[in-house]
Amino acid sequence: MQARHSGDTSSGKRIVISVDAMGGDRGPAAVVDGMAASAKKNPEIGFIVHGPRAELEPLIEKRKLGSRCEIRDAERVVAMGDKPSHVMRQGKGTSMWSAIEAVRGGDAQAVVSCGNTGALMALSMVRLRKLEGVNRPAIACLWPSRNPGGFNVMLDVGADIRADQDDLLQFALMGTSYARNGLGLERPRVGLLNVGTEEHKGRAELKVAHDLMADAAPAGQFDFVGFVEGGDIPSDRVDVIVTDGFTGNVALKTGEGTAGLIRDLLGEAFRYTPLSRVAALLALTSLKRLQKRIDPRRVNGGVFLGLNGTVVKSHGSADATGFSAAIKLAYRLAESGFNQRLAARVASAGAHRQDTATETSGESR
Amino acid sequence: MQARHSGDTSSGKRIVISVDAMGGDRGPAAVVDGMAASAKKNPEIGFIVHGPRAELEPLIEKRKLGSRCEIRDAERVVAMGDKPSHVMRQGKGTSMWSAIEAVRGGDAQAVVSCGNTGALMALSMVRLRKLEGVNRPAIACLWPSRNPGGFNVMLDVGADIRADQDDLLQFALMGTSYARNGLGLERPRVGLLNVGTEEHKGRAELKVAHDLMADAAPAGQFDFVGFVEGGDIPSDRVDVIVTDGFTGNVALKTGEGTAGLIRDLLGEAFRYTPLSRVAALLALTSLKRLQKRIDPRRVNGGVFLGLNGTVVKSHGSADATGFSAAIKLAYRLAESGFNQRLAARVASAGAHRQDTATETSGESR
User: Fold this and answer.
1) In the CATH hierarchy, which top-level class contains the domain A1-134+306-338+346-365?
2) Does domain B135-298 have CATH number 3.40.718.10?
3) Listed GO molecular functions (chains A, B) (predicted)?
4) Residue B353: pLDDT band by 50, 70, 90 thresholds?
5) Interface membership of A10 toward B (CB under 8 Å)
6) Residue B204, Cβ neighbours under 10 Å: how many?
7) Distance between the two ends of chain B, CA-based, in angstroms?
8) For residues A277 and B76, what is the distance between their CA atoms, to the nearest angstrom?
């Protein structure tokens, strides 16, 4: 459903994706199956895959990926329960560390992992480092919506638990760049999440961020639609929803939880009587159509924005279809030169803000 | 679906609900229709209804509510766009003001309004005042869930945009009292909303609130389940979800928006082909069963907790069925003597905390 990006891409050249094969709930077999699905659809893709060689080699051979795929042996695995601070200090030798290093060294253009989110963010921060001018990186997710493309972008959904007014402005710029390169939207509409659209509602820093975004919109080539509410997240009045990582994470999980409840209740409703079971059989195609439209596996992949390298976090419970979707997203972003574009955008906005002397914070500028 | 509360109620005595007939999207006719539906089901209920007499009298007569219903003439109406601060100063003579006064004066046991939420909260604060010992009142909503009763309680969903650790503890106590009297749960399970269940995640004040709630659980007669995430809001591992009003409001509207999107996509899926339209006809009963289970009209009614009087906020777009649900909730709370019980609970917790010398903040204690 997403139009292929039509920018000045490096088409024809092989794009290499670095894959952390370990740490997912379904183990490395699901990951390698996802790689195989992507390789089949896309002749330009190559892989560097990280994990215990003895475990990976038979999987790669079985899927006949040998010619497209280099294995980098990494015996250690980051577990779901590991603390990010611990992984940051002790993570060397893990498949996650190795996968990030391949991007850091320039051997791959993007990394995909379905491991522990906190650890992946922490390791990515330490090894790839923040982009010049970025204070607080963010995780952006895709959200099923009423828009023609089928998805909106929301950030931050959990890289950090706070964000001040300057961070929120940067999220708007980074989200714009992501929507343009990831979803093919020329001029994304950006909204700032708040509890009401009236001017007298909401937190003080949100009012300041509101004005900063309105000012930055013309130069940033996005349309600022002002405050949006939770109900607007899946709507067609906005493409990019900006919020802090605490609120964004709660909203994301609330949306997932609500969709899950409705899916289960729908199933119950159709199992209620023998007649409704017959109806369910007849309705199967329609229900599958709905399922496909909101299938979380199709929107799999949170992207870390604001680092020197593209990092895609696949869902921990992703199956082959889900992991393949995450690889597709990583490929698309790598192909469009997304990270260089994002860096240029943040740098020019930083310069612009310095020019206009509104610079108030600037830890890393 | 909710078991009738079996406490020491004032059964047999008429319970009077004060109704603000104005300010809803569908006008006073829908409100009076909702009153008629409630009156029909419940012979013990009486009403004082507020608004322009000339407009209300024919509606009341048409529904034959004359013997059950007193009209209090109020010419002015609070509009949806009115600022709460303005209504606080200039609200005298509005139907909303008049409706609250009837509870303040003891003529009615609870008030129901579908007007402007901010104005209703502000007026209720000023006229009814906060309960002794309550620092920050909260709005509690019912959320469709996997629990046997069908609903969970979440608070605060928008009374205020912030809450510190002591406020969150009070929300836990008030939510417990509401779940006991409103949903008939003897020993509610309370969870604190956060972005992760691991000990190293989340905001500092949430960690403190976590420990305060764990300490207060035995005396407060609730079970503290610790941190919960957005995905747990509709789950069956918790009955009461505690959070600040900003996060709660975003979560509530995100849930509503997600449910709305799925409902629309389900409709689309069933209109897709002639065959799917036939399937939809056969599936109609099942789909209606689902619709009934998550019908927002059935869970209509945010309750303001922490004031000297029970205030139920009906949805602005509520129809007669929705408004009748809000009246039912108000009746149920009035009948159970909820507000006196809540006051006693907060007071005893305050005394307990003073005893244990952990009292740190206390604007109104």
Assistant:
1) alpha beta
2) yes
3) phosphate:acyl-[acyl carrier protein] acyltransferase activity
4) low
5) no
6) 9
7) 38
8) 54
A79 touches chain B (CB under 8 A): no
Residue B204 CB contacts under 8 Å (≥ 6 apart), including other chains: none
Q: How confident is the model at residue A356, as a pLDDT?
A: 44
CB contact (8 A) between residue B158 and residue A249: no
| Nearest residue of A to residue B81, measured between CA atoms | A198
Q: How far is A189 from chain B (nearest CA, A)?
A: 19
- pLDDT tens sequence across B294-348: 665 666 678 999 999 999 999 888 889 989 999 999 999 998 888 888 888 888 7
Query: What is A140-298's CATH superfamily?
Result: Isopropylmalate Dehydrogenase (3.40.718.10)
Interface test with B, best of A162, A286, A289 (most B CBs within 10 A): A286
B298 three-class SS: coil
Burial environment of residue B306 by CB neighbours within 10 A (0 to 12, 13 to 18, 19 or more): buried
Residue type for position B38: S
Name the band, by pLDDT with cuts 50, 70 and 90, for residue A353.
Answer: low
Angle at A117 between CA A114 and CA A118, to 5 degrees: 150
What is the least distance, in Å, from the CA of A84 to any CA of chain B? 9
Can you tell me the distance from the alpha carbon of B92 to that of B76, in angstroms, rounded to the nearest whole number? 9
| pLDDT value of residue B197 | 52
Report the alpha-carbon distance of residue B115 to residue B94 in Å, rounded: 11
The ipTM value here is: 0.83
Three-state secondary structure call for residue B355: helix
Residue-level length of chain B: 365
Indicate the fold that domain B1-134+306-336 takes in CATH.
Answer: Isopropylmalate Dehydrogenase (3.40.718)
* Closest chain A residue to B287, measured at CA: A269
Three-state DSSP state, A349? helix
User: Whole-angstrom Cα distance, residue A192 to residue A208?
Assistant: 11
User: Does A1-134+306-338+346-365 match A140-298 in CATH topology?
Assistant: yes
| Residues of A with Cβ-Cβ distance to B196 under 8 angstroms | 118
Q: Residue B298 has what pLDDT?
A: 62
Query: Which phi and psi (to 5°) does residue B50 adopt?
Result: -120, 135
Residue B228, strand partner residues = B193
The per-residue pLDDT for range B16-65, each reduced to its tens digit, is: 999 999 988 899 999 999 999 999 999 999 999 999 999 999 999 999 99
Put simply, the answer to whether B161 touches A195 (Cβ < 8 Å) is: yes
Per-domain residue ranges of chain A:
1-134+306-338+346-365, 140-298
Angstrom distance (rounded) from CA A357 to CA A86: 40
**Chain A residues 249-288 within an 8 A CB cutoff of chain B:** 249-262, 264-266, 268-270, 272-273, 275-276, 278-280, 282-287
A129, exposed or middle or buried, with CB in 10 Å at 0-12, 13-18, 19+? middle
Encoded amino acid at A135, one letter: N
